[in-house]
Amino acid sequence: MRLLANYHTHTALCGHAEGMSEPYVLEAIRKGLQEIGFSDHGPIPRFFMTAAEYHENWLERQMDERAFETVYLPDLDRSIRRFGQVIHIRKGLEIEYLPGHDEHYQRLLTQLDYLSLGVHYFPSARGIYNTYWPMDADRITEYAKATAQALDTGYFTILNHPDLFLMNYQSPAGILIFDPAARAATVQIIEAAIRNGVYLEINGGGPRRGRFATDNGLDYLYPRTAFWRIVESYPEAKVIIGCDTHNPPELYDRIIEDVVAFASRFSFHVSPLIDFVSERRAAHERQSSLPPETGR
Hints:
It is a single chain. By secondary structure, the chain is of the alpha/beta class. It is built from nine helices and eleven strands. It has helices at 21-30, 51-56, 65-83, 102-109, 137-151, 180-195, 225-232, 254-263, 276-288; strands at 5-9, 35-41, 88-95, 114-117, 121-124, 127-130, 158-159, 199-203, 211-214, 217-220, 238-242. Strands 1-2-3-4-7-8-11 form a seven-stranded parallel beta sheet. β9 (211-214) and β10 (217-220) form a beta hairpin. The longest helix has 19 residues, at 65-83. The protein is globular. The model has no long low-confidence stretch (mean pLDDT 96).
């Protein structure tokens, strides 16, 4: 298996990556990729949450709506004009979904090829809860419910790091666990992705953190073997590899080769490319076929 495309590429606008689009495009060309998609963290308006929640989730450091319009999109358009005859360049965002603001996501989609869902924080009984905080069975149940609700909108083509909720789910001894609650959350996420035609992403960012003790031996924080073994039992699941690149030299380096090797351990098919026009059309048809009471 060889990587032909990456649809999870960040830029300096996210506040924790290097460079704008051009150096990533040049690296993709050098590495022989046929397609590169940019999915920097999408703008979340401040009124979507409380001031404290906005601050706790570091949103002041990320791209706002003005930067999206005046910096991000023009930068991608310049790269498309300059390199679009050499490599396909797709415009996207990685973004959270917060219910009740669907017009925001609909508007973004008019300017983009795709949206990826990245659930780094989610509505919970404790308010907006961050996935990087300690997780328990109640929190991962809320995570799975929020993820399924987001996917059911039909706005998203890719679910980034769908197993991120396992990153801080530990036993009292500090061992990463995969218990019945984790299995139930996994099944809910996978089945929501399948019914909405969403690609589950094997994420290249987790392996950069190393391997950790789990209840099934050493493993990545994500992608977690136990999660993907369950994906393997769903032949209709759609899977993609996403590099989660924050620095051009890391676009397709030794770590990403390890991620490709990880994916090769499973029997599911990993899609080499995404036809975004067909995916958007299929998503529209699925949403149009829903009874009014089960739609958005």
